[in-house]
Structures are given as structure tokens and as C-alpha cells.
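Translate structure to sequence.
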């Protein structure tokens, strides 16, 4: 007896049914029209809401399909590119005409070509804007906003029209920065109304040092030493010495999330330009990547041999990069998050700058006393007795720690160290392209009686060496040639990158000392612990706003203290063209 399993395969194979009876025939238009009422009757059985929603969706889908089809049919890919390019040129032409004020054919073409070159340079990550020569730093106005806190302010961040500061009092403050247009000369303003110029403190939040071990407490429990704000102005990040990193709502100063992944103090923070991606560096020698909108941890980057005291987020929106400096490991590291690799740049200077040449030449017992007679060797550490004047002679001081870092573009960045030097780096080289020594000069030498406890120290003792003022704050404008540095010498100094992008040149000081203080007066009294800049107007057409956080103590220590007020200085740097135009108008009014 045969069955399905014992039958041969030829007999077991199923026969295909008649194709003519199963294949659906193409419906004629008349047949479809005749069956339309039947279809409508079946659709009536569906609920009214579902049918109405379906009809709306069908209508929208049909219009979208028709519009896309019509666009595709009426315009080719080349024509679409041409249309978008023409629209882009029209937008640039409108901006150029607004800036210049007249429409000359050749000048219009030159300005548009210059703007196109700038856009291409920004896309490629190359430095392109030379704004240092267009700003009038000497005519910059300044105002001081008193904080009223007892301990020093340790940092600041600005996103106009607001600024945020942090302090060792566990306080985060939000300030309102006045627009120069609001207090500019206005004939229509009443004479009894004086517009506000000083920064106004809006509100503040204070932590609690007694909540150190409480993971549920959304606040700081230690001295706040790092701060950063996103380019959108939505998120504010702060870090303290108890390894607490807090993401705030920048508008209301409401804490959103607390992170305790760092094992030691959070010393540096920075957002990547144009994004909400946050980079943090800590005393645990780790760099951690965060996402502020999701309040999420992303990745940990390790490699530094000392505390990550400074960090700068990348300026390219399509590249997840950052640059960090490791204090006394004297290295700067460029981190590429996606590729998961790093580039190491070595600082520290040469053997002569470190003073090790004497040790190497005399380690085998050779007499090296003759080297002490050379003035250049006596100046290695600033102990030249013959140098009693106040000029800042370029002297090779040993670089012990790299403290600050800032990015210029995708391939250039600058660092500052405790030797007072400012270095320009390229991602193509492991050593700096150029180093400018003693950017903020040297402190006066300590008298002999302060160097020794002997009774006859004033007569037989030796005065102390003149040590350099190290750079306490560093700031740059992305994709521009401007660099700003600060210390405790009373000035914010401006620098620019040379035309060949291989040198650093001094531009001048920001601001002017009041006449009653004389030529040797200073403008800022205290230590500048933070520096933040932002351009006013489109592409900086209305000048530059510089905010400096000034305290009576250094950011991370108390080895130096002064009797000064804690607060912020706000500098408004005008453009030279605008300032000259205003001066010409004043002269015409006088005539």
C-alpha cells in the first residue's frame, strides 16, 4: 500500500492548478465603476472616525506625492543645484549690501568672493578671519560688577545677553550684561534717565557643604572650580572639588542632572562648538564625554599622567574632538572620540630652559663652576643680580605645568603655562610652532630680609629671583586670529596669529587706565581666574564683549591673596571703523 511517504517524488509532487482560473484579470474601468457602490457599502461598516482619519491621510499623502512628482518631473538634479546656489548667492549679496550700503558692481563681486572664501575656509576648518587688526582695544570701555561674596570667583561663561559665574562659596550666579546700544548717546532720551551700564545679578544658587555624601542632593558640596555653557544657551555645566558635575538649565538655574563618575575634582569643562556635547577633565587624570540633552554618560578617555587642568571642545560640528592639557605631565592631547585615538604634543622646553645642561655636563665629576659665570645661565631661573630694571627681557624659564588651552581652528591651538609663555601648536607637529615668553612679565624680586630669617639678612643676604607671572586665563575666538590672555598684572592682553600662521604677535592691552592713576596704574585689581568672549552682531560687526572673572585668590589654591573685591569686569571692544566713523561725526557736530 502506497502512502505519501513511500510514493515516488514524481507522484508526490503537487500539480499546479489551472492558471487561467486563478490569475486575476485586469479590471476594466466600467467594472471598477460598477463595483464602487459595493466598496462604499463595505467602508460604511467602519467607524466614522477611522474613515475620516484615513481620508485625511490619503489626501495628505496624495498631495505630497503629487508635489514631489511634479518637482522631480519639472526639475533635474543639476537644475536643483543651480537653484540652491543662486539662492545662496542672493542671500550673501543681500548681507553684503546691508554692510556696505551701496551697490557697486566690481566691489560687490569682490565682497561676495571674499565671503565665499570665508565660508569655504570655515567648512574646511581653516583660520580665516583677521579681526585683531579691526578691533580698537585701547578704546574699549569697561564696567565692574561686584559679586559681594566673601571667597574668590573661580570662573565665568558668557552667552549674551547673560553671563554666569562660580565661586569658592559654592555659589552659581547669573548676570545680565547691558547692551552698549542701550546706554549709547541718544538725543531722544530724557535727561533725568540714566541707563544701566553695570552688570546686574539676576539670581543665584548656593550649595551645601554638609551634603557631601548625599547622592540625592542636586547641588554642590565643595568649591566650584569649573564652568561651561553651550552655544545654544540652554545648558550650563559646573564642577567642584568633590567630584560633582551638575548640568543646569541655564535660563532658570534649575539643576537637571548630577554626575559623580569622576573620582576626584572636576577641574575643567567645555562644550563642543555648535552642539550640546560636553567634555570634562578631572584630577583623576580622565577626560569624560557627556551628552547634555540626554543627561547621559558617553565615554571615558585616559592617557594623561597628571590632572587634566584645562580642556577645549572641538570647533568642527562634524568632528567629535577636544584638546586637553595635563598640568605637570607637560603634554597636550588631541582626542578623536569616534576614531578612539589621541595625538600627544610634548611641551616643557629644551634642556637649557630646564637647567639640566649643568647636570649633564657635570655628572661625571667634571668641574662646571665656569658655567656659573655666564649671565645666560644665571638667567635660566631668573636669578640674575644685575637685572634690576623693570623691563621684561625674554628669559628662558623652565616650563613646569601647562595650565590653559584654547582652539583657534581644526588644525591650530594655543596653550599657556606657569612660565608665562604662550605657545602656538599645529596638529601636524609634536612640538610648538612658536613660543612667546613672559607674556605678562615678572613679579618684583623679594627683598633679602624676606628670603632669610637671619638678623643680618638685609646686609649679608641675597634677594630672591624674579619669577614670571603665569597665565591664569586664556580665550580665543573660533576661526579667527585673536588670542586673549590674563594674569594678575592688572591687564588683559591681546595677541594675534601671524599672517603665515606660524608666529604670535602682541596687539596690545584691553582698556585704558584712568588719567588720575598715571602711566603706571593698572586696570584690573585681582587675579583673573576666568575669561570668556563673544562677538556682538553678525560676524562681530558690532565689536567684541569680553568678560573676566576676578577674585582675590587663585582658582585652585590660596598661596596668594590680596585685598580686592570679587566680581566680573565687562569690556566692550569696538571696531576701528565704527569708532572712526563716530569720531568723524563728532567733529562734524563741533564744526
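Result:
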Amino acid at each position: 500500500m502506497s502512502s505519501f511517504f513511500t510514493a515516488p517524488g514524481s507522484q508526490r509532487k503537487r500539480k499546479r492548478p489551472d492558471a487561467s482560473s486563478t490569475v486575476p484579470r485586469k479590471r476594466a474601468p466600467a467594472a471598477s465603476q460598477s463595483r464602487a457602490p459595493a466598496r462604499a457599502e463595505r467602508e460604511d461598516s467602519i467607524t466614522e472616525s477611522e474613515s475620516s482619519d484615513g481620508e485625511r491621510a490619503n489626501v495628505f499623502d496624495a498631495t505630497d506625492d503629487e508635489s514631489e512628482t511634479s518637482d522631480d518631473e519639472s526639475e533635474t538634479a543639476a537644475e536643483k543645484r543651480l537653484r540652491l546656489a543662486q539662492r545662496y548667492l542672493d542671500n550673501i549679496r543681500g548681507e553684503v549690501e546691508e554692510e556696505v550700503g551701496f551697490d557697486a558692481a566690481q566691489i560687490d563681486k569682490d565682497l561676495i568672493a571674499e565671503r565665499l572664501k570665508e565660508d569655504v575656509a570655515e567648512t574646511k576648518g581653516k583660520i580665516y578671519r583677521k579681526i585683531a587688526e579691526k578691533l580698537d582695544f585701547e578704546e574699549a570701555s569697561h564696567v565692574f560688577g561686584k559679586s559681594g561674596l566673601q571667597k574668590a570667583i573661580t570662573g565665568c561663561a558668557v552667552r549674551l545677553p547673560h553671563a554666569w559665574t562660580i565661586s569658592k562659596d559654592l555659589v552659581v550666579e547669573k548676570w545680565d550684561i547691558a547692551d552698549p546700544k542701550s546706554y549709547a548717546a541718544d538725543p531722544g532720551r530724557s535727561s533725568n534717565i540714566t541707563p544701566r551700564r553695570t552688570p546686574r545679578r539676576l539670581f543665584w544658587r548656593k550649595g551645601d557643604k554638609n551634603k557631601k555624601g548625599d547622592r540625592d542632593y542636586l547641588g554642590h558640596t565643595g568649591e566650584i572650580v569649573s564652568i561651561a555653557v553651550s552655544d545654544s544657551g540652554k545648558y550650563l555645566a559646573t564642577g567642584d572639588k568633590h567630584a560633582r558635575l551638575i548640568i543646569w538649565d541655564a535660563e532658570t538655574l534649575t539643576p537637571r542632572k548630577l554626575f559623580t563618575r569622576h573620582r576626584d575634582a572636576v577641574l575643567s569643562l567645555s562644550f563642543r562648538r555648535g552642539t550640546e556635547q560636553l567634555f570634562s577633565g578631572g584630577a583623576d587624570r580622565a577626560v569624560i564625554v557627556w551628552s547634555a540633552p540626554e543627561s547621559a554618560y558617553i565615554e571615558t578617555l585616559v592617557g594623561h599622567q597628571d590632572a587634566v587642568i584645562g580642556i577645549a571642545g572641538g570647533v568642527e560640528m562634524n568632528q567629535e574632538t577636544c584638546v586637553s592639557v595635563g598640568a605637570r605631565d607637560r603634554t597636550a592631547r588631541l582626542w578623536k572620540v569616534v576614531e578612539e585615538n589621541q595625538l600627544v604634543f610634548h611641551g616643557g622646553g629644551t634642556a637649557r630652559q630646564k637647567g639640566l645642561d649643568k647636570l649633564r655636563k657635570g655628572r661625571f665629576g667634571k668641574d662646571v663652576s665656569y658655567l656659573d659665570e655666564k649671565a645666560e645661565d644665571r638667567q635660566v631661573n631668573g636669578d640674575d643680580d644685575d637685572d634690576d630694571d623693570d623691563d621684561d627681557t625674554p628669559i628662558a624659564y623652565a616650563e613646569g605645568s601647562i595650565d590653559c588651552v584654547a582652539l583657534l581652528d581644526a588644525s591650530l591651538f594655543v596653550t599657556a603655562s606657569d612660565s608665562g609663555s604662550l605657545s602656538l601648536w599645529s596638529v601636524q607637529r609634536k612640538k610648538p610652532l612658536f613660543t612667546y615668553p613672559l607674556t605678562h612679565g615678572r613679579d618684583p624680586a623679594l627683598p633679602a630680609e624676606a628670603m632669610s630669617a637671619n638678623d643680618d639678612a638685609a646686609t649679608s643676604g641675597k634677594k630672591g629671583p624674579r619669577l614670571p607671572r603665569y597665565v591664569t586665563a586664556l580665550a580665543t575666538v573660533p576661526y579667527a586670529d585673536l588670542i586673549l590672555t590674563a594674569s594678575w598684572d592688572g591687564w588683559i592682553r591681546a595677541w594675534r596669529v601671524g599672517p603665515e600662521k606660524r608666529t604670535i604677535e602682541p596687539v596690545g592691552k584691553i582698556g585704558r587706565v584712568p588719567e588720575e592713576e598715571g602711566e603706571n596704574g593698572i586696570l584690573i585689581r585681582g587675579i583673573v581666574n576666568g575669561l570668556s568672549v563673544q562677538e556682538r552682531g553678525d560676524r562681530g560687526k558690532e565689536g567684541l564683549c569680553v568678560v573676566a572673572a576676578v577674585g582675590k585668590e587663585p582658582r585652585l589654591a590660596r598661596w596668594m591673596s590680596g585685598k580686592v573685591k570679587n566680581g566680573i569686569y565687562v569690556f566692550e571692544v569696538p571696531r576701528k571703523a565704527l569708532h572712526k566713523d563716530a569720531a568723524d561725526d563728532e567733529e562734524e557736530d563741533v564744526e
